[in-house]
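Design a sequence for this backbone.
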């Protein structure tokens, strides 16, 4: 777990450097960085409350002495998760500054072609017409946030399998760093909900009307959409306010959750797949994403998972100039 923290800390430093290149480093920027760190630390602490029963069970499974000797693992998991989310928040807000949104038109057209001439959001609303979808909207924010920001902590508390721990922490880091940053830059896009205001016209006017009728616009999700657009328009750096549609980190994390549950127990694969299906559906239903954003994330995470299962992570050494340890350190310390 030390390696996880080191990588996250280096990532945070890189995000500050890129932020500094994109805009002047001021006291205001430094204070926002501190505020972001505290905010994400509080979020992770909140998520920890949901896995508190594991803290009560693990000492009996591991033995009290062994559990106490591994408390440092929990500390590294919490610190690593906090700085990871802080770095991601800063970098995500810089995506349109580094690569202006350009991919919405091709993504929207490809999405429509892929679904037989209909936009994916239309199908999502058509198939669930009359159903109480509003009742599962919190899954996209609150329920997802637990593994989204605290998966490393969950693994640290509950999993003693070294290979699996290293594999899923690698997937987790790749989801945020590669999907959420590298591919987000390559496919810089804002998503259906912001398409018209960026591209002009009324390509997604019906989406906005439908979201208003369904109550999504007035929901917590709708308020957040307004919040992140205001932050983008003001070139602000508010917490979690970055805009990036392709690919979907939400779906990427949900895919990791499904795979992890499936590896832990064959009986857990069904709730894992159900969670993935709900997150993919809501990402389209709410207008945050084109369906292809989620499809790409599933293919990327699934393909990487298959590749990692074919190698022994304990035999892969990272460059010592960067991190003086091997990936096994993630699980051993």
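Sequence:
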């Amino acid at each position: 777990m030390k390696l996880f923290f080191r990588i996250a800390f280096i990532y945070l430093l890189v995000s500050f450097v890129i932020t500094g290149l994109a805009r002047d480093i001021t006291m205001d920027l430094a204070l926002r960085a501190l505020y972001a760190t505290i905010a994400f630390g509080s979020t992770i602490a909140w998520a920890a409350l949901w896995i508190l029963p594991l803290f009560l069970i693990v000492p009996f499974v591991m033995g009290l002495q062994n559990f106490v000797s591994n408390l440092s693992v929990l500390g590294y998991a919490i610190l690593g998760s906090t700085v990871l989310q802080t770095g991601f928040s800063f970098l995500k807000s810089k995506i349109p500054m580094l690569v202006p949104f350009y991919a919405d038109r091709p993504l929207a057209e490809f999405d429509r072609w892929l679904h037989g001439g209909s936009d994916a959001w239309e199908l999502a609303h058509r198939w669930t017409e009359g159903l109480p979808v509003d009742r599962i909207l919190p899954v996209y924010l609150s329920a997802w946030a637990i593994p989204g920001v605290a998966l490393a902590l969950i693994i640290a508390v509950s999993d003693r399998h070294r290979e699996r721990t290293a594999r899923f922490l690698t997937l987790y880091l790749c989801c945020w760093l590669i999907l959420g940053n590298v591919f987000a830059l390559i496919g810089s896009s804002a998503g259906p909900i912001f398409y018209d205001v960026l591209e002009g016209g009324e390509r997604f006017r019906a989406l906005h009307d439908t979201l208003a009728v369904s109550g999504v616009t007035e929901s917590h999700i709708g308020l957040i959409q307004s919040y992140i657009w205001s932050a983008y328009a003001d070139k602000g750096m508010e917490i979690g306010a970055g805009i990036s549609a392709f690919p979907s980190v939400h779906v990427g994390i949900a895919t990791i959750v499904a795979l992890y549950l499936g590896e832990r127990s064959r009986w857990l694969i069904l709730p894992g797949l159900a969670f993935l299906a709900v997150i993919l559906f809501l990402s389209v239903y709410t207008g945050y994403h084109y369906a292809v954003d989620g499809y790409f994330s599933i293919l990327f995470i699934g393909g990487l998972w298959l590749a990692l299962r074919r190698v022994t992570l304990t035999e892969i050494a990272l460059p010592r100039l960067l991190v003086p340890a091997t990936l096994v350190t993630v699980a051993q310390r």
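Residues 315-333 have pLDDT under 50 and may be disordered.
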